[in-house]
What does this fold into?
Amino acid sequence: MMDAPLLAVHNLHVQFRTYAGIVHAVNGMSFDVRQGEIFGLVGESGCGKSVTGLAILRMVPHPGQISQGSILFHGEDLLQKTESEMQTIRGGKIAMIFQDPSASLNPVFTIGNQITRVIRQHMPVSRAEATERALAMFAAVGLPDPDNIFHTYPHELSGGLQQRAMIALALATGAELLVADEPTTALDVTIQAQILALLTELRDKQGVSILLITHNLGVVAETCDRVGVAYAGCIVEMGDTEDVLYRMKHPYTHGLLAALPHPSRRGQLLQAIEGTVPDGLALPSGCPFHPRCSQVMDICREKQPALVSLGSDHLVACHLYDEQRS
Ligand code: SF4
It folds into this structure.
């Protein structure tokens, strides 16, 4: 029997009440992250993936609200926790890193000061023990000359080293789950590859499970064990990375992959998906992808397809694969 997942997000809905109306940012998002895996949540901007990451840590900014669903971590619903319980979980068992590490690191304190403070907030250790742990984390994330880094201010580090410092800070208290929201998007390609290799190494050596939020299918292909493709705030296809990227079923996943450059299509125009991501203020009826789908049928305009299993771990939400229709 398969172990219970470390994190199970089920039917998550997040809304933003604005003057223009209710923006439905996340609409029934469901996926899980298993122990020791890297799960990719991929989609275009505006598909609800970053809001989902924030919802897991109960950090959705005002005026956002989690209106429905559950987020089980070790089987316990984070949505039922008190704010003080969440403060212990945040930065303790679950940590998050973002695209721009310089925005997350405090510019007026040294890296060493920031990391030892976080360690001592979450662990009953002396200042000396916290320093020792910080230096060990700097070494684990490949920061050169940890003693020197300890006394360095964030602005004195390059983007790649800042992101390594941020990862050290995130994992210094023994986090079991790292939510990484576009952690390499702001970095150049070489550094990006190094940070992705680091995430894989941390998973392999320290057993950290990672939810990797990205718009980049190349990042998914290189790094993730499984992937969920998000569209209009819900998952439309999910499974092992190989199945989803090489044996994709959903027309949206087909579209995303067809839009990527590939040596076999040299000289051909890239095939962008027509239309734009739907406005969360006025989501389409039925399948949210129907206004852009080349295979749309009558039922697609009326009924939202449920995620159905295609065997093994591969799931797809599309009426083309409904059992009733086959
Ligand atoms: Fe296209 Fe219909 Fe499938 Fe939606 S349900 S992706 S509109 S075929």
About this structure: The chain has one domain: 7-93+174-263+271-324. The pocket of iron/sulfur cluster is lined by residues 250-251, 287, 289-290, 293, 295-297, 300, 305, 318-320 (CB under 6 Å).
